[in-house]
Amino acid sequence: MSRILIIDDERDLVMLLKDELEAWGHEVLTAYDGRKGIELAKEQPDLIILDIMMPGTNGFEVCRAVRDDVFCPIIFLSAKQSETDKIKGLSMGGDDYIVKPFGLKELMARIEANLRREKRSQYINAQHKRTRLYFGNLGMDIKGRTVSINGEDIALTRREYDIVELLSLHAGQVFSREQIYEDIWGYDSEGDSSTVVEHIKKIRSKFAAAESSADYITTVWGIGYKWNRI
Description:
The chain is an alpha/beta fold. It is 43% helix and 21% strand. It has eight helices and twelve strands.
């Protein structure tokens, strides 16, 4: 369960999002103006949904006020569609930007993707002394972003390494193709989750070339992929 703070002056929208997020098992804090939002941000939420166009203290001002003390993802909501506004929001410390009106499923997908990325980052930071991981004959140097099998370095592309890191840091957890795509490429990237299949094929091929019996990534049919605990 994650604690999510919603800051938006549209009360009906806030209640709709609150009900949906609570149905997903999250704890929800709500604020209908920027001043209250700044106050509630002190409770260290795991993610903030922040409207830009609010009377009084707007979303940009809220972000500026809390960003030095709050490190969680911030998703901006705005009726403004201009590239300038998106760049401003992201450059001020926002992690995502979604234009109103939006689909509820799209927003929920972005929330979950941002939470997953944040949890992965927290896990890595918590394990900063453990910079190397080992699975059977496979070794990973997280700081160096390298993978080796039987001491032989595996030449992975950046995306291939990102997939290996994501799965291995959550060994045993099943990820759908869509989850992997959103986590590695980002929700707004052009393309689709079919590229994940091709990347995993290449990863497996490279692993097999170094170790014929390599079985580090398992396909969970109808769902996705998982990293084996070896």
